[in-house]
Fold this sequence. Notes:
By secondary structure, the protein is of the alpha/beta class. The chain folds into 2 domains: about 10-185, 3-Layer(aba) Sandwich (Rossmann fold); about 190-400, CoaB-like (Rossmann fold, 3-Layer(aba) Sandwich). It has helices at about 20-35, 50-60, 75-85, 95-105, 110-115, 130-135, 135-145, 170-185, 215-230, 255-265, 310-315, 335-345, 355-360, 380-395; strands at about 10-15, 35-40, 85-95, 120-125, 150, 155-160, 165-170, 190-195, 200-205, 210, 230-235, 250, 270-275, 280-285, 305, 325-330, 350-355, 365-370, 375-380. Helix 1 links the parallel strand 1 (about 10-15) and strand 2 (about 35-40). Helix 4 packs across helix 7 (about 135-145). The chain is elongated, with a radius of gyration of 25 Å. This is Coenzyme A biosynthesis bifunctional protein CoaBC. InterPro entries: CoaB-like_sf, CoaBC, DNA/pantothenate-metab_flavo_C, Flavin_trans-like, Flavoprotein. Keywords: Decarboxylase, Flavoprotein, FMN, Ligase, Lyase, Magnesium, Metal-binding, Multifunctional enzyme.
Amino acid sequence: MATAELAGKHLVLGMTGGIACYKIAELTRLLTKAGATVQVVMTEAATQFITPVTMQALSGRPVYTSQWDARVPNNMAHIDLSREADAIVIAPASTDFLAKLAHGMADDLLSTLCVARDCPLLVVPAMNRQMWQNPATQRNVTQLRADGIDVLGPDSGPQACGEVGDGRMLEAAATYEAIASFFSPKILSGRRVLLTAGPTFEPLDPVRGITNRSSGKMGFALARAAQQAGAEVHLVAGPVALETPWGVFREDVQTAQHMHDAVMRSVADADIFIGVAAVADWRVDHASEHKIKKTAERALPTFTFVENPDILAAVAKLPHPPFAVGFAAESGDLEVHGEEKRVRKNVPLLIGNLGPLTFGLDDNEVIMFEAGGATKLPRADKQTLARALIVEIAKRLPDTSLIR
């Protein structure tokens, strides 16, 4: 997460009663770390699960619980608290509170504030699975969506009551991602992005193989940035230990051939292809079915290598290719090798970097190569850089890329 992607945003964070209130402590920390100011408003029921003192300490602002709060000079907290807000977020949003919103009820500070708002409203449901599945709740949620209210979640899994199912509130990190996505300009709305990330692993035998130092961080950051920009994102990931970005469909693969096959199965539906993965150029011909033993009598093993399929070139050669963006990690002479690779792969845009200096790091520095010349982007954390690259890619999309 980039540390200032919500800089300048002012959020009213409304809390209703439920055990999921404990997650809001972490959510508040994430929001403030990202540069947002957070004004917490709690229902009386919410104060039974976590104290206003805790939320004040985490938000750095006084917490409001009553519509009669005399700290507001005109005694109109339900009006004043929302007027400078960029959005109101209700988390956790209880069954009762969803019903109130659906029917326009205003019998406490938080519900009145929502009815009197002139800013977007997001709700993050949290309840028992049977409460979520109840027809009345589903009718209410349908009405909320029809009224233009964003419903984030719920998740599925173990619940505080001991049951398992839908209704569980999104985790704090996922809720943060959904909020950040809400505020991101939708410059890729309606677009479909197919993206590869991470290394590949080519086995020598069942326990050994050839791989590289790619962490997948740049590719995952681009997948996240594309999703936040409104795209439908399909991420084909090599073996990495990274969490799937919010709202992204992830397909895990291991070898270059697996990655090639996954891409070719889905590329016909893509408007944009971004090949970020560090794909192995070669693999062992006929890898051993059993572990290769090391013994004093046995000579050193020898291997015969064959070339792996070139995924980026294969996409570019399609009769009707998506807008294809390649990545090149070089160890030197980036300006020369980057443009040469772009021409050889026949892609409109190639992003080059000095791979050995950036693998595994949280920041990067890249050069964009295209027919009109090369453009260097300043060094930045990979998430900030990913957002900048998505903007650059969006600028270069042909108008016909929406028609596939």
